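Sample pair:
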Amino acid sequence: MQLETARSMSAGKLSNYNNKAVCFLKMIKNQPLTKSGSGKDVHHFEFEFVSAAIEYEVGDVLEILPSQDPAAVDTFIQRCNLDPDALITVQHKEMKNYLPDIHKNTTEVPIKLRTFVELTMDVTSASPRRYFFEVMSYFATAEHEKERLQYFASPEGRDDLYKYNQKERRTVLEVLEDFPSVQMPIDWLVQLVPPLKTRAFSISSSPLAHPNQVHLTVSVVSWTTPYKRKRTGLCSVWLAGLDPQQGIYIPAWFQKGSLPRPPPSVPLILIGPGTGCAPFRGFVEERAIQSSSGPAAPIIFFFGCRNEDDFLYRELWLSHSLNDGVFSEAKGGGFYVAFSRKQPQKVYVQHKMLEQSQRIWNLLLSKASIYVAGSATKMPSDVWSTFEEIVSKEGEASRDSAANWLKALQRAGRYHVEAWS
């Protein structure tokens, strides 16, 4: 079979595809950072380049293509009555129209159907769209299933479809198993099953400190749906379960994030609760190397966690607070941690920022840049509001004037936010 419009398949070929630098990484370290029973599961990962090393900077982002559960892939293939050993031809649709004739056939890769499904079709984590249910209704042979699918695809069934599908995060495989009379041809499945997408993570290392390596700080995602079904994040669970001794090669792509690399002469105000500390681990490593060979501006860092059990990189931060570390008084720096659950009254990074109001204001007057990273829920707006309060108080200005001052800071490239959900 030839599936011309299938997927952009290859991780190793067409290395400039979509203008992203691609490489293969080998995991050399998988270290849990949180204690058992803490309620959070965060891991530190270290990777080595096994293909040509890619140049990256602190603040950059690494995208990883996750692997799906092989048993679930086999179940999907069996459910759809597909031959896992059938050879298919994959062609990049985007490249088809403008490749010279002499190269037209070089992008076609004979591949087993099972490999194609495993690497390109997200059958184990993504929820299908409404059109998937509409097409399923045409292939349903059981009348009650056909009626249910038609209802889900109708405007009247939109709310019930949302409750059944998106809210419960049902996978393609689960949906197909709920409607056993449906047998969709492979060409429809290829078009309608969501593509397996890469997952993006903030890089938590500096290439100056770790040549030929890249590090990540990843929270293992898990949650419970409204109907008490356990769900987990595909990529984070897969990474956490890998054994560095297995020597698995991981396809990865580097891209620029929202946090530009700061020059050593710029003072930094960092706010990174939880895994928001990830990019700042690289910032701190790099500033430490820069300060050992010449003058470097100070850093103050506001970190937040629930208690000592999820105090990520505790020894690293505290070591940089001693002697001539980048957080030490001698260097003009500071490290402030907010424990939200350690004491009866919750303390967040905003409270620690207000305690250091004068110091923050002085650094801002010294042309400091602000970097904020972490959860995209309330944290970024709460931190912005706290900065408004600090500027208003220390600068003896109205709240509106303080907000305008911060917006000017943002336009000047001195206020950066990287947030994720």
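Residues 258 and 418 are 5 Å apart (CA to CA).
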